[in-house]
Amino acid sequence: MKDRSNFTSKLGFVLAASGSAVGLGNIWRFPYLAAQYGGGTFLLIYLILAVTFGFTLMTAEIAIGRKTGLSAIGAFKVLDKRFNFLGILAVVVPVIIFPYYSVIGGWVVKYFAVFISGGVKASAGDTYFTDFIGGTFQPIGWFLLFLALTAVVVLCGVEKGIEKVSKIMMPILVVLTIIISVYGLTLDGAMEGLVYYIKPHMADVSAKTILAAMGQLFYSMSLAMGIMITYGSYMKKTDSLESSVRQIELFDTGIAFLAGLMIIPAVFAFSGGDRSALSAGPGLMFMTLPKVFASMKFGGAIGTIFFLLVLFAALTSAISLMETIVSVFMDRFGWKRRFTGILVAILAALMGIPSSLGFGPLGFITWNNLSILDIMDFLSNSVLMPIVAFFTCIFVGFIIKPKAIADEVKETGEPFKAEGMFNIMIKWVAPIFLVIILASSIASGLGWFKI
Ligand code: PHE
Which of residues 260 and 280 earns the better pLDDT score? Predict the structure, then answer.
Protein backbone atom coordinates (compact mmCIF):
# COMPACT_ATOMS: atom_id res chain seq x y z
CA MET A 1 0.00 0.00 0.00
CA LYS A 2 3.02 2.26 0.09
CA ASP A 3 2.93 3.58 -3.44
CA ARG A 4 -0.40 5.22 -3.95
CA SER A 5 -1.50 2.87 -6.67
CA ASN A 6 -5.15 2.72 -7.53
CA PHE A 7 -7.33 -0.28 -7.13
CA THR A 8 -7.62 -1.89 -10.52
CA SER A 9 -11.39 -1.92 -10.60
CA LYS A 10 -14.37 -0.77 -8.63
CA LEU A 11 -14.92 -4.36 -7.55
CA GLY A 12 -11.35 -4.45 -6.31
CA PHE A 13 -11.98 -1.37 -4.19
CA VAL A 14 -15.28 -2.64 -2.83
CA LEU A 15 -13.71 -5.98 -1.94
CA ALA A 16 -10.67 -4.47 -0.30
CA ALA A 17 -12.79 -2.12 1.82
CA SER A 18 -15.12 -5.01 2.62
CA GLY A 19 -12.11 -7.10 3.61
CA SER A 20 -11.39 -4.55 6.30
CA ALA A 21 -15.03 -4.15 7.26
CA VAL A 22 -16.07 -7.80 7.35
CA GLY A 23 -14.36 -9.50 10.22
CA LEU A 24 -14.81 -10.58 13.78
CA GLY A 25 -17.07 -7.58 14.24
CA ASN A 26 -19.66 -9.22 12.02
CA ILE A 27 -19.31 -12.83 13.02
CA TRP A 28 -18.27 -12.64 16.64
CA ARG A 29 -19.37 -9.25 17.98
CA PHE A 30 -22.66 -8.56 16.21
CA PRO A 31 -24.42 -11.79 17.29
CA TYR A 32 -23.54 -11.48 20.96
CA LEU A 33 -24.65 -7.86 21.08
CA ALA A 34 -27.89 -8.68 19.29
CA ALA A 35 -28.46 -11.56 21.71
CA GLN A 36 -27.78 -9.31 24.70
CA TYR A 37 -29.72 -6.25 23.58
CA GLY A 38 -33.12 -7.56 22.68
CA GLY A 39 -32.64 -9.40 19.38
CA GLY A 40 -35.00 -7.87 16.82
CA THR A 41 -34.91 -4.52 18.60
CA PHE A 42 -31.16 -4.34 18.23
CA LEU A 43 -31.33 -5.56 14.65
CA LEU A 44 -33.85 -2.90 13.64
CA ILE A 45 -31.95 -0.07 15.30
CA TYR A 46 -28.74 -1.28 13.72
CA LEU A 47 -30.27 -1.36 10.24
CA ILE A 48 -31.69 2.14 10.56
CA LEU A 49 -28.36 3.49 11.79
CA ALA A 50 -26.47 1.70 9.01
CA VAL A 51 -28.37 3.30 6.14
CA THR A 52 -28.32 6.77 7.71
CA PHE A 53 -25.25 7.26 9.94
CA GLY A 54 -23.14 4.54 8.43
CA PHE A 55 -23.80 5.74 4.92
CA THR A 56 -23.10 9.36 5.78
CA LEU A 57 -19.85 8.76 7.60
CA MET A 58 -18.51 6.24 5.15
CA THR A 59 -19.27 8.51 2.20
CA ALA A 60 -17.58 11.42 3.96
CA GLU A 61 -14.47 9.41 4.83
CA ILE A 62 -13.99 7.83 1.43
CA ALA A 63 -14.58 11.17 -0.29
CA ILE A 64 -12.04 12.93 1.96
CA GLY A 65 -9.50 10.26 1.10
CA ARG A 66 -10.14 10.39 -2.63
CA LYS A 67 -10.19 14.18 -2.70
CA THR A 68 -6.85 14.57 -0.94
CA GLY A 69 -5.14 11.36 -1.97
CA LEU A 70 -3.83 11.10 1.59
CA SER A 71 -4.38 8.97 4.68
CA ALA A 72 -6.15 10.35 7.75
CA ILE A 73 -3.27 12.23 9.33
CA GLY A 74 -2.30 14.09 6.16
CA ALA A 75 -5.84 14.50 4.84
CA PHE A 76 -7.28 16.52 7.74
CA LYS A 77 -4.15 18.63 8.01
CA VAL A 78 -4.09 19.52 4.32
CA LEU A 79 -7.75 20.53 4.34
CA ASP A 80 -7.48 22.56 7.55
CA LYS A 81 -4.47 22.86 9.85
CA ARG A 82 -6.63 23.19 12.95
CA PHE A 83 -7.93 19.67 12.42
CA ASN A 84 -4.54 18.02 12.58
CA PHE A 85 -5.50 16.67 16.01
CA LEU A 86 -8.34 14.70 14.47
CA GLY A 87 -6.01 12.65 12.30
CA ILE A 88 -3.93 11.85 15.36
CA LEU A 89 -6.96 10.97 17.45
CA ALA A 90 -8.20 8.69 14.68
CA VAL A 91 -5.00 6.69 14.86
CA VAL A 92 -5.32 6.10 18.59
CA VAL A 93 -8.38 3.95 17.84
CA PRO A 94 -6.62 1.15 15.94
CA VAL A 95 -3.82 1.23 18.51
CA ILE A 96 -6.39 0.25 21.13
CA ILE A 97 -8.35 -2.17 18.97
CA PHE A 98 -5.54 -4.08 17.30
CA PRO A 99 -4.15 -5.85 20.40
CA TYR A 100 -7.45 -7.10 21.75
CA TYR A 101 -8.70 -7.92 18.27
CA SER A 102 -5.72 -10.23 17.96
CA VAL A 103 -6.60 -11.88 21.27
CA ILE A 104 -9.97 -12.91 19.81
CA GLY A 105 -8.19 -13.81 16.56
CA GLY A 106 -6.10 -16.18 18.66
CA TRP A 107 -9.25 -17.87 19.97
CA VAL A 108 -10.30 -18.45 16.35
CA VAL A 109 -6.93 -20.00 15.49
CA LYS A 110 -7.26 -22.26 18.53
CA TYR A 111 -10.73 -23.44 17.46
CA PHE A 112 -9.53 -24.06 13.93
CA ALA A 113 -6.68 -26.18 15.30
CA VAL A 114 -9.01 -28.10 17.61
CA PHE A 115 -11.48 -28.81 14.81
CA ILE A 116 -8.90 -29.86 12.27
CA SER A 117 -7.46 -32.31 14.77
CA GLY A 118 -10.86 -33.89 15.32
CA GLY A 119 -11.78 -32.20 18.58
CA VAL A 120 -15.34 -31.24 17.68
CA LYS A 121 -16.95 -33.27 20.50
CA ALA A 122 -14.58 -31.98 23.15
CA SER A 123 -15.05 -28.36 22.03
CA ALA A 124 -18.80 -28.65 22.55
CA GLY A 125 -18.33 -29.30 26.28
CA ASP A 126 -20.02 -26.79 28.57
CA THR A 127 -16.90 -25.42 30.20
CA TYR A 128 -14.51 -25.97 27.31
CA PHE A 129 -14.38 -22.35 26.29
CA THR A 130 -14.23 -20.81 29.74
CA ASP A 131 -11.53 -23.28 30.76
CA PHE A 132 -9.54 -22.31 27.69
CA ILE A 133 -9.70 -18.53 28.06
CA GLY A 134 -9.25 -18.85 31.82
CA GLY A 135 -5.78 -20.31 31.23
CA THR A 136 -2.55 -18.35 31.20
CA PHE A 137 -0.15 -19.53 28.52
CA GLN A 138 -2.53 -21.22 26.07
CA PRO A 139 -4.58 -18.16 25.12
CA ILE A 140 -1.45 -16.01 25.03
CA GLY A 141 0.25 -18.51 22.73
CA TRP A 142 -2.65 -18.52 20.26
CA PHE A 143 -2.88 -14.74 20.46
CA LEU A 144 0.80 -14.39 19.60
CA LEU A 145 0.39 -16.81 16.71
CA PHE A 146 -2.44 -14.74 15.24
CA LEU A 147 -0.41 -11.58 15.73
CA ALA A 148 2.57 -13.17 14.00
CA LEU A 149 0.43 -14.23 11.02
CA THR A 150 -0.87 -10.69 10.65
CA ALA A 151 2.59 -9.20 11.01
CA VAL A 152 4.06 -11.49 8.36
CA VAL A 153 1.48 -10.35 5.81
CA VAL A 154 1.94 -6.68 6.65
CA LEU A 155 5.72 -7.02 6.49
CA CYS A 156 5.63 -8.76 3.12
CA GLY A 157 2.99 -6.37 1.83
CA VAL A 158 1.13 -8.98 -0.20
CA GLU A 159 -2.10 -6.98 -0.66
CA LYS A 160 -2.45 -8.27 -4.19
CA GLY A 161 -2.58 -11.84 -2.93
CA ILE A 162 -5.12 -10.91 -0.30
CA GLU A 163 -7.32 -9.27 -2.88
CA LYS A 164 -7.30 -12.47 -4.92
CA VAL A 165 -7.93 -14.80 -2.01
CA SER A 166 -10.75 -12.52 -0.78
CA LYS A 167 -12.59 -13.01 -4.02
CA ILE A 168 -12.77 -16.74 -3.37
CA MET A 169 -13.00 -16.93 0.41
CA MET A 170 -15.67 -14.29 0.98
CA PRO A 171 -18.33 -15.93 -1.21
CA ILE A 172 -17.60 -19.32 0.39
CA LEU A 173 -18.01 -17.76 3.81
CA VAL A 174 -21.44 -16.46 2.80
CA VAL A 175 -22.57 -19.83 1.44
CA LEU A 176 -21.32 -21.71 4.48
CA THR A 177 -22.98 -19.28 6.86
CA ILE A 178 -26.27 -19.82 5.06
CA ILE A 179 -25.93 -23.61 5.23
CA ILE A 180 -25.13 -23.52 8.95
CA SER A 181 -28.05 -21.13 9.63
CA VAL A 182 -30.51 -23.30 7.74
CA TYR A 183 -29.35 -26.35 9.64
CA GLY A 184 -29.51 -24.45 12.93
CA LEU A 185 -33.10 -23.46 12.25
CA THR A 186 -34.16 -27.10 12.02
CA LEU A 187 -33.09 -27.72 15.62
CA ASP A 188 -35.77 -28.07 18.28
CA GLY A 189 -36.59 -24.72 19.83
CA ALA A 190 -34.74 -22.72 17.20
CA MET A 191 -37.91 -21.10 15.87
CA GLU A 192 -38.46 -19.28 19.12
CA GLY A 193 -34.93 -17.94 18.72
CA LEU A 194 -35.64 -16.84 15.18
CA VAL A 195 -38.63 -14.84 16.37
CA TYR A 196 -36.51 -13.26 19.08
CA TYR A 197 -33.88 -12.32 16.53
CA ILE A 198 -36.20 -10.89 13.89
CA LYS A 199 -39.09 -9.37 15.78
CA PRO A 200 -38.47 -5.97 17.34
CA HIS A 201 -40.06 -5.10 20.69
CA MET A 202 -40.50 -1.39 20.82
CA ALA A 203 -40.70 -1.51 24.59
CA ASP A 204 -37.08 -2.70 24.66
CA VAL A 205 -35.69 0.34 22.89
CA SER A 206 -33.32 2.05 25.30
CA ALA A 207 -30.41 4.45 25.21
CA LYS A 208 -28.17 1.54 25.99
CA THR A 209 -29.34 -0.42 22.97
CA ILE A 210 -28.85 2.54 20.66
CA LEU A 211 -25.41 3.14 22.12
CA ALA A 212 -24.41 -0.47 21.64
CA ALA A 213 -25.73 -0.47 18.06
CA MET A 214 -23.87 2.72 17.28
CA GLY A 215 -20.57 1.44 18.65
CA GLN A 216 -21.05 -1.74 16.67
CA LEU A 217 -21.74 0.21 13.50
CA PHE A 218 -18.47 2.14 13.66
CA TYR A 219 -16.56 -0.96 14.54
CA SER A 220 -18.09 -3.17 11.91
CA MET A 221 -17.73 -0.69 9.08
CA SER A 222 -14.20 0.27 10.13
CA LEU A 223 -15.33 3.89 10.52
CA ALA A 224 -14.06 6.76 12.65
CA MET A 225 -10.46 5.70 12.62
CA GLY A 226 -9.12 6.81 9.31
CA ILE A 227 -9.16 3.46 7.56
CA MET A 228 -11.79 4.41 5.02
CA ILE A 229 -9.97 7.69 4.35
CA THR A 230 -6.88 5.71 3.45
CA TYR A 231 -8.86 3.32 1.25
CA GLY A 232 -10.60 6.23 -0.43
CA SER A 233 -7.22 7.70 -1.29
CA TYR A 234 -6.60 4.63 -3.44
CA MET A 235 -9.93 4.84 -5.22
CA LYS A 236 -10.18 5.85 -8.86
CA LYS A 237 -11.89 9.12 -9.69
CA THR A 238 -13.91 7.40 -12.38
CA ASP A 239 -15.62 4.88 -10.08
CA SER A 240 -18.97 5.66 -8.51
CA LEU A 241 -18.44 6.49 -4.87
CA GLU A 242 -22.05 6.35 -3.79
CA SER A 243 -22.76 2.92 -5.17
CA SER A 244 -19.45 1.60 -3.77
CA VAL A 245 -20.50 2.74 -0.31
CA ARG A 246 -23.89 1.08 -0.71
CA GLN A 247 -22.25 -2.17 -1.75
CA ILE A 248 -19.77 -2.23 1.13
CA GLU A 249 -22.61 -1.50 3.52
CA LEU A 250 -24.80 -4.20 2.10
CA PHE A 251 -22.05 -6.76 2.24
CA ASP A 252 -21.02 -5.87 5.77
CA THR A 253 -24.54 -5.76 7.15
CA GLY A 254 -25.57 -8.87 5.24
CA ILE A 255 -22.81 -10.96 6.78
CA ALA A 256 -23.56 -9.64 10.27
CA PHE A 257 -27.23 -10.51 9.80
CA LEU A 258 -26.38 -14.02 8.65
CA ALA A 259 -23.99 -14.53 11.55
CA GLY A 260 -26.79 -13.65 13.95
CA LEU A 261 -29.09 -16.02 12.15
CA MET A 262 -26.53 -18.73 12.53
CA ILE A 263 -25.93 -18.21 16.23
CA ILE A 264 -29.01 -16.82 18.01
CA PRO A 265 -31.62 -19.47 17.10
CA ALA A 266 -29.03 -22.11 17.97
CA VAL A 267 -28.56 -20.54 21.41
CA PHE A 268 -32.26 -21.04 22.06
CA ALA A 269 -32.12 -24.61 20.80
CA PHE A 270 -29.21 -25.61 23.01
CA SER A 271 -30.18 -23.73 26.14
CA GLY A 272 -33.67 -25.22 26.18
CA GLY A 273 -35.25 -21.77 26.30
CA ASP A 274 -33.05 -20.55 29.14
CA ARG A 275 -32.77 -16.87 28.29
CA SER A 276 -29.74 -16.24 30.47
CA ALA A 277 -27.68 -18.00 27.80
CA LEU A 278 -28.22 -14.93 25.64
CA SER A 279 -26.06 -12.75 27.83
CA ALA A 280 -22.93 -14.85 27.38
CA GLY A 281 -21.12 -11.88 25.82
CA PRO A 282 -17.81 -12.25 23.98
CA GLY A 283 -17.79 -16.02 24.33
CA LEU A 284 -21.15 -16.61 22.67
CA MET A 285 -19.89 -17.70 19.27
CA PHE A 286 -17.28 -19.99 20.75
CA MET A 287 -19.76 -21.66 23.06
CA THR A 288 -22.74 -22.08 20.74
CA LEU A 289 -21.28 -22.98 17.36
CA PRO A 290 -19.25 -25.99 18.52
CA LYS A 291 -22.50 -27.42 19.88
CA VAL A 292 -24.14 -26.91 16.48
CA PHE A 293 -21.23 -28.60 14.73
CA ALA A 294 -21.13 -31.47 17.20
CA SER A 295 -24.78 -32.24 16.48
CA MET A 296 -24.38 -31.96 12.72
CA LYS A 297 -23.50 -34.62 10.19
CA PHE A 298 -19.95 -33.91 8.97
CA GLY A 299 -19.86 -31.26 11.69
CA GLY A 300 -16.14 -31.76 12.22
CA ALA A 301 -15.33 -30.96 8.60
CA ILE A 302 -17.83 -28.14 8.29
CA GLY A 303 -16.59 -26.62 11.54
CA THR A 304 -13.01 -26.81 10.32
CA ILE A 305 -13.81 -24.96 7.11
CA PHE A 306 -15.95 -22.49 9.02
CA PHE A 307 -13.23 -21.52 11.48
CA LEU A 308 -10.74 -21.28 8.63
CA LEU A 309 -12.97 -18.76 6.87
CA VAL A 310 -13.58 -16.79 10.04
CA LEU A 311 -9.85 -16.77 10.59
CA PHE A 312 -9.40 -15.41 7.13
CA ALA A 313 -11.99 -12.67 7.63
CA ALA A 314 -10.33 -11.79 10.94
CA LEU A 315 -6.91 -11.64 9.32
CA THR A 316 -7.95 -9.27 6.54
CA SER A 317 -9.39 -6.91 9.17
CA ALA A 318 -6.38 -7.24 11.47
CA ILE A 319 -4.11 -6.50 8.53
CA SER A 320 -5.98 -3.27 7.82
CA LEU A 321 -5.68 -2.30 11.49
CA MET A 322 -1.96 -3.02 11.64
CA GLU A 323 -1.26 -1.46 8.26
CA THR A 324 -2.86 1.79 9.41
CA ILE A 325 -0.66 1.97 12.49
CA VAL A 326 2.47 0.98 10.60
CA SER A 327 1.99 3.46 7.77
CA VAL A 328 1.34 6.32 10.18
CA PHE A 329 4.57 5.59 12.10
CA MET A 330 6.48 5.25 8.87
CA ASP A 331 5.22 8.56 7.52
CA ARG A 332 5.64 10.37 10.81
CA PHE A 333 9.11 9.20 11.82
CA GLY A 334 10.52 8.14 8.48
CA TRP A 335 11.19 4.60 9.73
CA LYS A 336 11.58 1.56 7.49
CA ARG A 337 8.64 -0.80 7.01
CA ARG A 338 10.41 -3.80 8.54
CA PHE A 339 11.55 -1.99 11.68
CA THR A 340 8.16 -0.32 12.15
CA GLY A 341 6.25 -3.56 11.59
CA ILE A 342 8.29 -5.44 14.16
CA LEU A 343 8.03 -2.60 16.66
CA VAL A 344 4.25 -2.40 16.25
CA ALA A 345 3.95 -6.18 16.61
CA ILE A 346 5.95 -6.15 19.85
CA LEU A 347 3.93 -3.27 21.26
CA ALA A 348 0.69 -5.02 20.31
CA ALA A 349 1.90 -8.21 21.98
CA LEU A 350 2.61 -6.32 25.20
CA MET A 351 -0.69 -4.47 25.09
CA GLY A 352 -2.71 -7.58 24.27
CA ILE A 353 -1.39 -9.77 27.08
CA PRO A 354 -3.45 -8.09 29.83
CA SER A 355 -6.60 -8.46 27.70
CA SER A 356 -5.83 -12.13 27.25
CA LEU A 357 -5.15 -12.67 30.96
CA GLY A 358 -8.29 -10.78 31.94
CA PHE A 359 -10.36 -13.94 31.79
CA GLY A 360 -7.93 -15.90 33.95
CA PRO A 361 -5.14 -14.72 36.26
CA LEU A 362 -6.08 -11.05 35.87
CA GLY A 363 -9.79 -11.79 36.16
CA PHE A 364 -9.95 -9.77 39.37
CA ILE A 365 -9.36 -6.57 37.40
CA THR A 366 -12.80 -5.42 36.36
CA TRP A 367 -14.59 -2.14 35.96
CA ASN A 368 -18.36 -2.10 36.08
CA ASN A 369 -18.22 -5.84 35.60
CA LEU A 370 -16.22 -5.48 32.41
CA SER A 371 -13.11 -7.56 31.85
CA ILE A 372 -9.92 -5.91 30.60
CA LEU A 373 -10.77 -6.87 27.01
CA ASP A 374 -14.26 -5.43 27.37
CA ILE A 375 -12.83 -2.22 28.82
CA MET A 376 -10.60 -1.79 25.75
CA ASP A 377 -13.60 -2.49 23.56
CA PHE A 378 -15.67 0.07 25.46
CA LEU A 379 -12.93 2.70 25.24
CA SER A 380 -12.51 2.40 21.51
CA ASN A 381 -16.08 1.81 20.39
CA SER A 382 -18.12 3.79 22.89
CA VAL A 383 -15.77 6.65 23.69
CA LEU A 384 -13.12 7.33 21.07
CA MET A 385 -15.05 6.41 17.93
CA PRO A 386 -18.00 8.70 18.74
CA ILE A 387 -15.53 11.52 19.45
CA VAL A 388 -13.74 11.06 16.13
CA ALA A 389 -17.06 10.71 14.31
CA PHE A 390 -18.37 13.89 15.95
CA PHE A 391 -15.39 15.98 14.86
CA THR A 392 -15.50 14.46 11.40
CA CYS A 393 -19.10 15.66 11.09
CA ILE A 394 -18.20 19.15 12.30
CA PHE A 395 -15.24 19.20 9.97
CA VAL A 396 -17.31 18.27 6.94
CA GLY A 397 -20.47 20.12 7.93
CA PHE A 398 -18.93 23.47 8.86
CA ILE A 399 -15.32 23.65 7.73
CA ILE A 400 -14.97 22.13 4.28
CA LYS A 401 -18.78 22.10 3.87
CA PRO A 402 -20.93 19.20 2.66
CA LYS A 403 -20.70 20.53 -0.88
CA ALA A 404 -17.03 19.58 -1.02
CA ILE A 405 -18.02 15.96 -0.39
CA ALA A 406 -20.96 16.14 -2.80
CA ASP A 407 -18.67 17.48 -5.53
CA GLU A 408 -16.29 14.62 -4.96
CA VAL A 409 -19.16 12.11 -5.15
CA LYS A 410 -20.38 13.73 -8.39
CA GLU A 411 -16.90 13.63 -9.90
CA THR A 412 -17.99 10.82 -12.22
CA GLY A 413 -20.85 12.90 -13.60
CA GLU A 414 -23.43 10.81 -11.79
CA PRO A 415 -25.90 12.42 -9.40
CA PHE A 416 -25.48 12.10 -5.62
CA LYS A 417 -28.83 10.48 -4.90
CA ALA A 418 -28.76 10.78 -1.14
CA GLU A 419 -27.34 14.31 -1.06
CA GLY A 420 -30.29 15.77 0.83
CA MET A 421 -30.08 13.20 3.58
CA PHE A 422 -26.31 13.48 3.66
CA ASN A 423 -26.42 17.24 4.25
CA ILE A 424 -28.88 17.08 7.10
CA MET A 425 -27.22 14.08 8.70
CA ILE A 426 -23.68 15.39 8.65
CA LYS A 427 -24.50 18.90 9.84
CA TRP A 428 -27.21 18.35 12.38
CA VAL A 429 -28.58 14.92 13.13
CA ALA A 430 -25.30 13.05 13.46
CA PRO A 431 -23.37 15.55 15.60
CA ILE A 432 -26.27 16.16 18.00
CA PHE A 433 -26.92 12.48 18.31
CA LEU A 434 -23.24 11.73 18.80
CA VAL A 435 -22.91 14.21 21.65
CA ILE A 436 -25.88 12.68 23.43
CA ILE A 437 -24.56 9.19 22.86
CA LEU A 438 -21.10 10.08 24.03
CA ALA A 439 -22.27 11.87 27.14
CA SER A 440 -24.48 9.00 28.17
CA SER A 441 -21.83 6.42 27.42
CA ILE A 442 -19.20 8.20 29.48
CA ALA A 443 -21.60 8.90 32.31
CA SER A 444 -22.74 5.32 32.48
CA GLY A 445 -19.19 4.10 32.03
CA LEU A 446 -18.13 6.15 35.03
CA GLY A 447 -20.99 4.61 36.90
CA TRP A 448 -22.88 7.87 37.42
CA PHE A 449 -26.05 6.21 36.36
CA LYS A 450 -27.24 3.03 34.77
CA ILE A 451 -28.79 3.31 31.35
N1 PHE B 1 -14.44 -3.89 10.87
C2 PHE B 1 -13.69 -4.97 11.43
C3 PHE B 1 -14.63 -6.07 11.86
O4 PHE B 1 -15.82 -5.99 11.71
C5 PHE B 1 -12.89 -4.58 12.61
C6 PHE B 1 -12.13 -3.38 12.35
C7 PHE B 1 -12.43 -2.25 13.06
C8 PHE B 1 -11.17 -3.39 11.38
C9 PHE B 1 -11.78 -1.11 12.78
C10 PHE B 1 -10.52 -2.25 11.09
C11 PHE B 1 -10.83 -1.12 11.78
O12 PHE B 1 -14.19 -7.06 12.37
Answer: 260
